[in-house]
What we know:
Chain A has helices at about 20-25, 30-60, 70-105, 110-130, 160-185, 200-230, 245-280, 285-300, 315-345, 350-375, 375-385, 385-415, 425-450, 465-495, 535-540, 540-545, 565-575, 600, 610-625, 625-630, 635-655; strands at about 560, 565. By secondary structure, chain A is an all-alpha fold.
Amino acid sequence: MATAAVSPSYARTSSGSPSGIWSWLTTVDHKRIGTLYLYTALAWFAVGGTEAVIMRMQLQGPNGRVVSAEVFNQLFTMHGTTMIFLVVMPLSAAFFNFLIPLQIGARDVAFPRLNAFSYWVYLFGSLFMNASWLVGMAPNGGWFGYAPLTTLPYSPGLNIDFWMLGLQILGVSSLAAAFNFITTIINMRAPGMNLMRMPMFTWMAFVVQFLLVLAFPVITIALVFLQFDRFFGTNFYTITQGADPLLWQHLFWIFGHPEVYILILPAFGLVSEILPTFSRKPIFGYPVMVYSGILIAFLGFGVWAHHMFAVGMGPIADSVFSMTTMLIAIPTGVKIFNWIFTMWGGNLRFTVAMKFAISLVALFTIGGISGVMHASPPADLQQTDTYFIVAHFHYVLVAGSLMGLWGGIYYYFPKITGRLLSEKIGNWHFWLTFIGVNLTFMPMHWSGLYGMPRRVYTYDAGQGWEIFNLMSSTGAYLQALAGIIFAYNIFRSRTHGEIAGNDPWEAPSLEWSIPSPPPDYNFETIPTVTSRYPLWDIKHPELTASVPHSRHGDERNDVSLGGKHVGAFHDHMAAGTPEGGLNPNATQASSKVSLKTAEELGIPMPYPTIKPLWVALFMTLMFASLLLIHKDKLPLAMAGVVTFATLMTGFLYAWLTAPLEPHHH
Amino acid sequence: MTAVASHAHPPTSTGLDHRKIAIWAFIGSECMLFASLISTYLIYKGRSVVGPFPHEACNPPVCATHLNPILNIPVTSFSTFVLLMSSLAMVLALAAVENKGKPGYEGLLGSSKFWLISTAVLGITFLGCQAYEFTSFVHEGLTIRTNLFGSSFFTLTGFHGAHVTAGVLWLITLLAIDIKRGLGPKDALLVDIAALYWHFVDVVWIAIFTLVYLIK
């Protein structure tokens, strides 16, 4: 474990990693961008959490008077939209950014400036959407924004305009990031890092990028139709003109169901990193874990209409979507069992990260089982639009995604900052979260089955819902307290936490072979990888020696690498005399070396640049100008669009024609 | 450090340039974009409650005035042919850049500038045909607000036209680089990824032309 030194185990390099606001505005370093994503998403978590707490205050007892019905509509819409698009997706993006290059042995992502662009678009898009609170017109049509309800005759205010333009902006961020990460994972793996040696987190991240690339264009088009209907008077959602009232629902859920896996698979990936480390065992059934992740994503595109059983699609469509939905339980169940078998017989260490990871396995299963329940259309007709559904998706997204992401933060905070989060405070955070989550969402199963509908701003006494709502509200307050403790832990540990060293958890993958925080160039020499567990091969060969499939069957397939038989090579490393790129001395936690700068090492680093920020800003303003159409100022709106589009294109050309990094010969 | 070369960027895992992989991922995403637009057009086909309609005439009393089938197949067949030829010109532009200076690539027909200009001009011709088509539809009483056919038709073909416009700007940018410093074999990738995009936009048009214009 870490030493009790008062400063990081090496001196931070000055060249290439300056501090100050300007260095953050112009950074193209994937680690800094990941850090920006992390703290921005945590700030929005505080906002989305506050919205939830206000709703739970309103619903704590019958006939609550905390907020009006209209404000309540805005609260549940913005709570859902914020938590999905501004919290869970960007938290996942924080880990994609920070970890993918480190786990595959790369120095950065494929397109560092595009990466900065993605972050700034996310930041400006999130600010734009929340600016609606300032004019008292926050979106109020639910996070799914069903048209025709959201068309002009039924939603005349600016509320929906903020929502649809905001989502359009955020979609650009997700798509740009997805192209970047797909290219990074396909093209920037270190020598020997074949696909079946990639860490599970990188695998799940890879799968998620394909979901993003294929799902986001569909909601983009659904939103374009809505914009045209609202701004230009087209008829896509106008029923009197013959439009299909289900068009939006189909398009939205063709995006919306893959989106569910976009939210959960990164957390699954993090758990698949945490459980093996703290069980001192390789992940059970690595190939099957990979295939089940791919299968979940593939099936995820064929189940969207299970969100629509109540609209009357007919018995054939209902049956087909019911069966495909139940099929997804198989690969998901495989993952659950493989995590259990990973822990089975392991030498378990119950750190806070491990507790969060185990909670995901246990609690996600509850959400998964209630999911299978309403995969059955007759059962769903009873449960749809009740609190039972709210209970289900909060078990999946809070007890699932967020538990995994919190575990990931405890696990990777030392790599990101060089210091460990306090385990003592972390235990308070964990137990309050664990109790709070269950106390909030478990009673919702009952209030739902007793008939309490979703999205009602209040209810009368005497329907048997009071006790469940009181429990839910109490749980929500506990979760809020847990959130405050978490914030304190992060705030305090950033400066006062224990020094982490390279590898505080004795983990198996490449990111733990380099200092914490890593130098801007990540790896002094690009490592050569010969197995799924490069660090364990060096430091703990006993952990991988007895697991034949941990080596991806290289021995069985008689593969050779660099003229050497891989099996022999592997055993040679295990005997303590490693070859290839990894230096065991570099993995010592207490090494006191002063790191060289990228310049001293002759590693070309990308120039910092402000241009992606400008392009993101002008793109956001271009979309924001469209709000003026609503105010009957079409010429002004068009002038804004043309001005900002021109500025955006100008800065884009400046960005594309400027060199990425110094030329090297 | 002496071994500077060892610290330069390592070769990519696939041997391909990053941009080549990214453009394929982008095209995959664009497929879903146009799939959504085309599906909506097909779902809404025949559901408009008022004319004009794409293939059918509409007479009183169903329509207030007499309306002809609105799609102009001959003009669009011509513009489709023009767009197909632009893909050929794009292929020849790429070949000219890759083989600059080699025997057989002298003169006008071996000039990348000539073929880039040709591709752009053919693209602009296609856009001109689309502008003519849109204008004549409006004169015949079909706007984006008239009926479901108008909404879905103008949005679908308009999105495609916007993609062609972006492609033309891309081609003009390449042409500017070519004029400024000359595009040679080591720049082939720049032209290659533009060509992939251009061919994709062309292929999408073949789907649109078949599904919207040819099938009644």
